[in-house]
Each structure stands twice: as C-alpha cells, then as structure tokens.
Amino acid sequence: MSAWHYFNPVNISFGAGEISKIGTLIKNRRYLLVTHPDAPMLPWIEQVKAAAGAPLAVINEIEPNPSLAMLERVCGKLDQANIVPEVIVALGGGSVIDSAKFLAAGHGQYQIVYDYLQSGSEITQTSLPIIAVPTTSGTGSDLTKWATIWDLEADRKLSLNRPDLYAEAIIIDPVITQSLPWSVTLASGLDALSHALESIWNINANPVTRNFAIAAARDILKALPRLQLDLNDTEARSQMAMGATNAGLAFSNTQTALAHNISYPITLHYKLAHGIACSFCLPEVMRTAIGVSADCDQAIAAIFGDLQKAPQTLRAFLNSLGAPARPEEIGIGKREWQNIVQAAFTGQRGQNFIGTIDKFPF
Ligand SMILES: [Zn+2]
C-alpha cells in the first residue's frame, strides 16, 4: 500500500436537537449570524438566539451561488455599522457557509479577500473562527477549507482556499432538514453523492477517504428514494445527513474531480442547481473511470455491486429520482457538450480525475 495522509480538524456534533447546544460552542463570544432570508430559517435563528444570546447582527441576504457583488454589499454594511465579531455563525446551505468563509477570511473587509481571489495577494491575518450549522444535507462546505465564489461580471468561478477556513465546530441536526422541499433535498443529496463518487475516481484518494465515500454513497442511495416518497421520514433524513457528512469527510481531503468541473459552466450559463449540474453526468464519468485503478473499481463495486453494470445502475437511480439524464434535457447542444467536457478535463478539478478523455462516452 502506498503512503497516505488524512487531515480534518472540524469538531462535529451530530444528532436531533443538537442545535440547542450551540451556546456551549459560541462560549459568550461576540458573533455574527449569517443565514438565508427564507421563512423556514426563522425558528432556527430563534433557537440560536435562545441558546447563545443575541448576535451582533444578522446577515440574512445570502443568495444562492454567492457572488462578489453580493459579498461587497454585505461587507459594506458591516463596515458602516462597525460590526467586529469574534466568531461567525453560519446557519444555512453551502452558499451561506461559503459566504461565511469569505467574511471570516477578511474579518468582514471586502478588499483583501477580493485581492486574494483576483491576484493571489496574501492575506496575513488569521481567519475568524466559524461555527457552521448546515441546513441542507449535501454541500459539505461545513467540512472543507474552501469556498466557491462567483465573479458574475467576468463570468467565472473563483476558489477561496485557505488552511484556516475549516470550521471550528459544526452542528449537524437532521431535524433542521425536515422542512426542505423535494427539489432542495434532491439537489443537495445528489451533490453529496457526487462528492462521494468524485473522491473515489480521484488521484488524491486514499484508504480513509475511500471508506468514508463508500459509506456515504450507500447511505445516500438508500435515503433519497425514501425521502422522495416521504419528506418527513426522520430516519431517512438522518441517514441522508450521515451520508452527506461522510461524503464531506471524504472529499475534504481529495477535492472533487471531473463532474464538478463539468458543472461550473452549466451552473453559470443554465442556472441549474449545483447538485443537479454535477450529478447528471456521473454515469458517463464513472464509465470513463472504470478499469483505470483497482482501488477505484473495488470502491465502485462495493457501492453498486456489479462493476460493469454500475454506470447503468446509477443512471436508473438518477432517472427514478426524476433528475435530468442527457445534456439535451438541460438545453446543451452536442458541440457545446464536447467543448464543456474537453475544457473540464484540463481544468484544475478535472486534473484530479483518474480517467482520460478518449474513454469518455459522449
Ligand atoms: Zn459539489
């Protein structure tokens, strides 16, 4: 076995009702609460306040796929009100947690993080600590040290990636996900499945990440069909949260791979939810990966049974959930699809992928 290394410093609390213990994690520090404007968030905001006292401020204007323009607005408000938190509490999905990382890296100052993203100029100060309470089961941002930020004016995706952006602590309370509609449950669940699989067909995979990924995929494959039938299935919500956590622990050490690089232009130009954009082509990406590495093949077989039939099994699973199957269904023409896939292979995440383009079934 070749040498390997695994690291994840996040303090994890998991379980129904765990959000009520957030006060013991905040420990009387002055905190900024970053969240979504959606009504279902309100009771959880109240829970945080009840457990930890009032925040310095609530930033509740975080939009999906956080953009530089939105973050500049938020930082302007913090600056104007002279708000200087000791810790940032992120209550929301991946967009909220990614936005919290941007605010943590710059202590609420926009320009230094902007300069870092645009020109790589160093940020010298240590990031503010983050306590994350994910409200969806899927994005995994609570377990990674990076954030996806969109520069909509320049039509590109930026990656904020710093070793001190791991959350100090996270609370995964599956009860919070109970109120999610099917569309969000599906998109975030398929994002988690993508994280698990992308960490397997990955040059950075190791025995620990593979174990996390196999456990994650098995849980997600069981939980999503149950939630499709009954969104209030508490056991399935818990299983889905567990799957997303294991997927996060897997890809926090490998990063993602080809399917994610395929997804970015699709999210940008077709406004497709991230979890759908990175999962619809998983069977084709899997077909390209099979036969390249014995470790990868074994992991895929451990999840899907028969290795050769695994791409078909996965396609049938995605179909049963009503997820799109072909690029045409999203509105992507044949030529454009080839261009997207070709570019994805050469992109940063694409280079994590173990397969080669000559095997990709267009
Ligand atoms: Zn993802």
Automatic annotation (TrEMBL):
Occurrences of domain Fe-containing alcohol dehydrogenase-like C-terminal (ranges): 185-348
Domain Alcohol dehydrogenase iron-type/glycerol dehydrogenase GldA: 9-174
Residues spanning the signal sequence: none
Domain of life from the UniProt record: Bacteria
Pfam family, one: Fe-ADH
Gene3D superfamilies on file: 3.40.50.1970, Dehydroquinate synthase-like - alpha domain
UniProt-listed InterPro entries: ADH_Fe/GldA, ADH_Fe_C, ADH_Fe_CS, ADH_Fe_PsrA-like, Alcohol_dehydrogenase_Fe, PhpC
This protein's UniProt keywords: NAD, Oxidoreductase
Cofactor requirements of the protein: Fe cation
Family per record: Belongs to the iron-containing alcohol dehydrogenase family.
PANTHER family according to UniProt: ALCOHOL DEHYDROGENASE, ALCOHOL DEHYDROGENASE 4
Listed NCBIfam families: Phn_Fe-ADH
Protein name (record): Iron-containing alcohol dehydrogenase
Organism annotation: Paenochrobactrum glaciei
